[in-house]
Amino acid sequence: MGAPVVVGYDASEHAGAALRWAAREARTRGAALRVVYVRDAHDLDVAARPHGTDLGERGDEGAWPVVEEAAALARDVAPGLETEVYVEYAAPAAALVELSRDAGALVLGATRHGGLYEAMRATVVMQVTAHAHCPVVVVPPAEVASEVAADAPVVVGYDGSAQATLALDAGTDCAWLLGRPLRVVVVWRPGVTEWVVSRGPTEHEGHDVTEGDAGPLLERALARVEERLQGAGAAPGAVEVSGVVHEGQVVRVLHRESEAAERLVVGTRGRGGFASLLLGSATHTLVRTARCPVLVVRASG
Asked: Which of 83, 115, 175, 217 could form a disulfide with 182 if both were Cys (CB 3.0 to 4.6 A apart)?
């Protein structure tokens, strides 16, 4: 059995979307699903009422009935799935990062609404995405997620950096595991002014790609994909692999790609600092706005 898939759950609608996605992902990976409800370390209230929502009798009985109900829902979504339940009383981001140490993936629900609770929840998502020890998947709310076609590809944003290469490898593995097409996207930006902007924390993950670089960069990426698939034992043509070069801004191009993707795979910088600097602002934005789940991969350590 593979490393478990961990999903953060708090009985909100966002967490419900993440739970259903995580259940299907765990079944595909042949892994157990760990459902984790994290209560703040200072929350001494026995009742479980996420962001003020009254959960009725099961909420009055505390967190365990809520998380057990979530595990039952996961088994309904993915029959035969092995589930484990956890309730942690700690700072939410710290608890989830710790639970990511032996996980194959950590799944969280994105947020789209305003208000203090949603702002705090978004901060937790960014902190966990930046510091987790395994890849993190941020699942958009059901009301904004695009419909997933049977042939929807796994899309990887690639710029030749070490972080993007990790994302490329992870995306290749996902496409092979899921039996889906793989689409590699390279984005280049023209102009001296835009080159300067891309070096700052406002747009690019780390590498600036010029028009002359883009074609050879894509060729190298596709060659690496074929090597990795051969190493995994895939027969020639077993995975439909394509690549595309776009001119434009990274965030805008990849957001467009997310509208028809099964998932979008991106890398992170893996350095210290504020969330937008730690993740790279393109990743920081896509985690909040993409129309499909975003798989964020970062270097260990």
From this structure: 175
The end-to-end CA distance of the chain, in Å, is 25
Average pLDDT along the chain: 83
CB atoms within 10 A of CB 162: 12
Structure token pair of residue 135: 């890849």
Residues 6+ away with beta carbon under 8 Å from 66: 9, 11, 37, 48, 55, 58, 59
Domain 154-297: which topology? Rossmann fold (3.40.50)
Band (pLDDT 50/70/90 cuts) for residue 46 is: very low
Contact 41, 12 (CB under 8 A): no
27: number of Cβ within 10 Å: 19
8-state DSSP, 213: H
Bridge partners of 46, per DSSP, are none
Here the tokens at position 250 are: 């990274």
- Domain ranges in the chain are 2-139, 154-297
Above 50 in pLDDT, residue 57? no
Helix (H) or strand (E) holding 173: helix 162-178
pLDDT at site 53: 54
Read off the pLDDT of residues 82-136 as tens digits, 9 standing for 90 and up.
999 999 888 889 999 999 999 999 999 987 655 544 556 668 888 899 889 999 9
Burial class (CB in 10 A: 0-12, 13-18, 19+), 151: exposed
CA angle in degrees (0–180, nearest 5) for 237-238-243: 60
Question: Which residues share a beta bridge with 220?
Answer: none
Q: What pLDDT is stored for residue 124 in this prediction?
A: 85
Class of domain 2-139: alpha beta
Read off the tokens for 32. 């157990």
Q: What distance in Å separates the CA atoms of residue 88 and residue 252, rounded to the nearest whole number?
A: 38
| Ramachandran area for residue 30 (φ above 0: left; ψ -120 to 50: alpha; else beta) | left
**Matching CATH topology for 2-139 and 154-297?**
yes
Give me the count of residues in the chain.
Answer: 301
- Asked if 15 and 8 touch (Cβ cutoff 8 Å), the reply is yes
